[in-house]
Amino acid sequence: MIRATHLSKHYGATLALDRLDLNVPPGAVFGLLGPNGSGKTTFIKLLLGLVFPDTGSVESDAVAAHRIGYLPERITLPTRSRIDEYLRLCAYLDGLRGAALASAVDTRLRQVGLDQVARNRIGSCSKGMLQRLGLAAALIGDPPLLVLDEPMEGLDPAWQKSVRELIMQLRRDGKTVLLSTHRLSDVAEVCDHVAILAGGRLKRAGALVDVLPLRERVVIDVDQMPEALAASMAVLGPGITVQGGHVLLEGQAVARKHDVLRKMLDAGVDVRGLAQQRLTLEEIYLEAMRP
Predict the structure, then answer these.
(1) Which tens digits make up the pLDDT trace of 81-114?
(2) Is the separation of the CB atoms in 238 and 251 below 8 Å?
(3) pTM of the full predicted structure?
(4) Any idea what the CATH number is for the domain that residue 20 is in?
(5) Domain boundary residue, one of 143, 177, 211
(6) Do 240 and 180 lie in a common domain?
(7) Which domain covers residue 275, as residue numbers?
(8) How far is CA 59 from CA 21, 32, 52, 249, in A?
(9) Is the alpha carbon torsion for 75, 58, 43, 185 positive or negative?
């Protein structure tokens, strides 16, 4: 469990986080969403103790016990070290010794596809390889809590898919994963809980299906809609809007599409087409971001 209570942080005159109250349940893959400057990375730094809050607190049993794996957004690694040497050091610092250390290093190198280049210098690695090495380092001690800040950055599509599968396996293993990302497709695939931040404030938080519920809409194309008829649509219920040559039905209004069509046809409106669509996650997210 991660619990933030009235958590605030300023950087000079800039308010990075404003009285945040947030709970991350154990065993969840929890997505932190929001634009640049929304407070996601500040929250992670406060959780890890890398910076200190102005007011409030953030608590986690895993952090208190130093049982946490962290992949930062911008990873910096010792370029002169070999890949396997660096990972052995991470394992040693995490308390592993002897056969357990060697086994953990071998397992993580294979898991991130670096076992065949383990003796290469880190300075020769591509951006994607560095990202995978950072992920291996976060996983090396098998911690109960993983904090991943933009883990797909620099990865090709095949490895993005592999990392998503890895995150889903971590959830099946009972791990808690805090995932900060801009990629809504990743959120839809791996997260079961999300929080949306904007301007340092919490907009929404909860189960994914509650915060970003998938919804359908109906789009009716018309040749011309008389103003009086457009204004009268409101009597059929909320969720009906007229935009130029389109009539949009959303929410409960989707079930009234036959009534809307009948009203337009009775008025002699030329209906050119009707399409039932599912709103994209991006559209639902942008709607949630509105003031």
Answers:
(1) 999 999 999 999 999 999 999 999 999 999 999 9
(2) yes
(3) 0.82
(4) 3.40.50.300
(5) 211
(6) no
(7) 216-289
(8) 12, 17, 12, 44
(9) positive
